[in-house]
Each structure stands twice: as structure tokens, then as C-alpha cells.
Amino acid sequence: MRLRNIPGSREAIAENPWCIPEECHPKGKWHDIFKNDHPIQIEIGMGKGRFILELARQNPDINYVGIEKYSSVLVRGLQKMEETPLENIRFIRMDAETICEMFGEHEVDRIYLNFSDPWPKDRHAKRRLTSREFFRRYDHILKTDGRVEFKTDNSSLFDFSLEEVKEAGWRLDGFTRNLHHDPLMNEGNVMTEYEERFSAMGNPIHKLIASR
Ligand code: SAM
Asked: Is the dihedral of CA 200, 164, 123, 49 positive or negative?
């Protein structure tokens, strides 16, 4: 993600009614925030939000929470949202390392990770969103029958993630190394910004689904 500081993005986020500030302590209260008991699905590292906004548009009976570390990126998603407001989506600007402070035990039905940062140096492996450390956090916030869905074009990160699913004691429900040529796994696929860009360059898209 090319990061350009957008002046005023922090202020725009603080004032935006769809953005839930960390200080709001929404943990365990998401159904009150959405004012319904629909399932809650989250995307960690939503970037400019194309994927999660499209899911929210297609599925009005599911609640979505988009999580993004950088204000300058998140603000782009908020701009798109203002063009077509949706009731079933909220956003948080945060580092996912503290995700267990924002969601209660078993509060989340599904976690999407799309084109997550690879952190190629071994000493940074713990920062990868598919590391065993993150699976431990997901284990806490995900419902017992919940699942994690991960897409990337980075084969090293994908190999690492397959190993980490096993190391974390999770089950691999499905995987493919060429999503767009796998009719079953690709059914209903919603493309992300990075997915569109990398598949246009000819990179095969990998996907895995994990549960416990
Ligand atoms: N998911 C989008 C897509 O597929 O088009 C964006 C992919 S981009 C490569 C990765 C995004 O994840 C960036 O916007 C980055 O800021 C965000 N990100 C990386 N690590 C994160 C973390 N620990 N917590 C929250 N967001 C994170």
C-alpha cells in the first residue's frame, strides 16, 4: 500500500459516525452498535475498503467491521462509504495486534485477510496476520464454528500460512493456488483492490479457508 499522508485524515476519522474509536470500548457490544443480532464478519487490513464495502452491499443481513492501521488509507474507504451509505458496516482504525481488546470472546463469525503485508524478514514473522500468534487471537474472538479466509498472490507467505494453520492446531477446510481457475473456491468471489491489480499482472491468486 503506497502511503501518502492525507492532511486532516485523523480528524475526518474522529468525526465520522461509521468509525468506532478505540476509546469507545466496543468489545462485547457490537450487536448494540448495529442494533440487531446479525452475524459479525471482519476484514483485517481492509485498505481502501473495496472488498468489505461490496460484501456489505451484497449482504444486508450480515454486519461488517473493516479494520485498517492507517488513517490515510481508511479515509479513502470512508469517502466511498459517503457516496453510498450502508447501515451494516463500521470501521476501526487500529493495529490488529490488539484485536482482542475490541471484540469479545466468540463475538465474530468470520475473519477476512486479503493481501496482508508479507513481513519477509524472519524476525518479523509474528507480525504476519496469518502467524500462529494471530491465530491465537482469532481463536479468542471467533465463534466456535467461525472461519478465517485468506487470499494473497505471495506464494512464500501462503506456504508460511499453510504451516501456521497446522501449527496453531486449526483445520484447513480448503485451499487453492489458482483461485480464479478453481470454480468451487472462486464461487461468489469478491475481488479486492490488490487482487484486481495482481491478477491483471498474471499473478495467480492463492486462497485458504481455516477453522478449528
Ligand atoms: N486488503 C486490501 C486489498 O486486498 O486490496 C489491502 C491490502 S494492503 C497490501 C494491506 C493493508 O493492511 C494495508 O492497508 C495495511 O495498512 C493494513 N494492515 C497491515 N497490517 C495491519 C495490522 N496489523 N492491523 C491493521 N491493518 C493492517
From this structure: positive
